[in-house]
Write a structure and sequence with these properties.
Layout lengths: L1 H10 L1 H20 L7 H19 L6 H20 L2 H10 L1 E4 L2 E4 H30 L6 H27 L5 H9 L8 H16 L7 E4 L2 E8 L3 E5 L5 E5 H6 L3 E2 L8 E8 L5 H13 L12 E7 L4 E8 L1
Antiparallel strand pairs: 1-2, 3-4, 3-7, 4-5, 5-6, 8-10, 9-10
Length: about 325
């Protein structure tokens, strides 16, 4: 973070040095001339340079590049109009331009205010969501599934509150959204059924805690551990580095093998064979000792065992079972 701030200051170093020089020149001009008209343009330049620095540093808090550029240009344009004294005329012109929404109308000025407020509210909601996520993930008393559920619920609550507050601030009647939601409700029957099913399945997975982050699962030909739980899919990381995005619905309706559901123990079976002239007792003893020599192999309560499982054409077949 400190390095990022240092780089931002370094990139804006010329502007930072220009601002005090500009205001110093304004102070000198004020001493030399009694009439402000003599140094009016210099005051505007100094104010614009200051506003440019403030906007440049403030927009660095926005991580999204597109949103940062939009906010940067919008703020810079409005501050420029305000400094040169054209903000009132532009505001009156935007208020006179109105758009009809059914029986009511809304001005372009209200739309711009609403978009600005929504942007600020969404930035605040994103900051609160990140703070909450950091604190929830650091809480070791909560289960991994409960952490994901709390984070997702916080995101929905904060972004939903930001949206409705922004709509109310603009003056849009939210009762009209009931008709819109009714129309959207027809969607699941035609094209959004799988999307809604995945969302509901994701909530069920989080509530019943059947699958948690870091669990080792196998679904069909996919075997790996849970990397993250999303709203629509589960990220499964395999041993060869591939990451599968499995829809939540498949985990609810399909047969899933969770190798670490109740505990983290896994039994391994190793088949091998020896010649007929080898002593079976010595073979079993050596195989068990070899398994116990590995640190990951459990010695109790599930101790390694070795049994004869068959007689081949040229070897005695054994199975070595142990838990890790």
């Amino acid at each position: 973070m400190a390095i990022k701030v240092f780089l931002v200051i370094q990139n804006r170093l010329r502007g930072i040095m220009f601002v005090p020089l500009a205001y110093g020149a304004v102070a000198i001009m004020q001493d030399l001339y009694r009439f402000p008209s003599k140094y009016y343009l210099l005051v505007i330049v100094a104010n614009l340079a200051t506003a440019w620095l403030i906007v440049a540093f403030a927009t660095r808090l926005i991580n999204n590049n597109l949103l940062r550029r939009v906010v940067n240009w919008a703020a810079w344009t409005w501050i420029t109009l305000r400094i040169v004294g054209l903000d009132s005329e532009i505001q009156q012109m935007l208020e006179s331009a109105r758009i009809g929404l059914g029986e009511s109308t809304i001005s372009v000025w209200q739309i711009l205010q609403g978009l600005t407020l929504l942007a600020l509210l969404f930035v605040g909601a994103r900051f609160l969501t990140r703070t909450t996520t950091t604190r929830v993930n650091s809480n070791e008393e909560m289960s991994p599934s409960m952490r994901v559920l709390v984070v997702k619920a916080t995101q929905v609550a904060l972004y939903g509150a930001a949206f409705f507050i922004g709509m109310r601030a603009v003056g849009i009647d939210l009762t009209g959204l009931a008709v819109l939601s009714g129309a959207i409700g027809v969607g699941p029957g035609f094209g959004l059924q799988r999307v809604v099913s995945n969302l509901v399945s994701g909530v069920i997975i989080l509530l019943d805690k059947s699958i948690k982050p870091c669990d080792v699962i196998s679904l069909g030909d996919t075997f790996g551990w849970i990397n993250s739980l999303g709203a629509r899919y589960v990220s499964v990381m395999t041993r060869n580095g591939k990451e599968y995005l499995i829809p939540n619905e498949d985990l609810i309706t399909g047969q899933v093998v969770n190798w670490s559901y109740s505990n983290d123990y896994v039994r391994l079976d190793i088949y091998f064979g020896t010649a007929y002239h080898d002593d079976p007792h010595n073979v079993r003893t050596l195989a068990i000792e070899a398994a116990k020599s590995v640190d990951r192999v459990l010695s109790s309560p599930r101790a390694p065992v070795c049994h004869i499982v068959g007689f081949g054409d040229s070897s005695v077949d054994y199975i070595l079972r142990f838990w890790i």
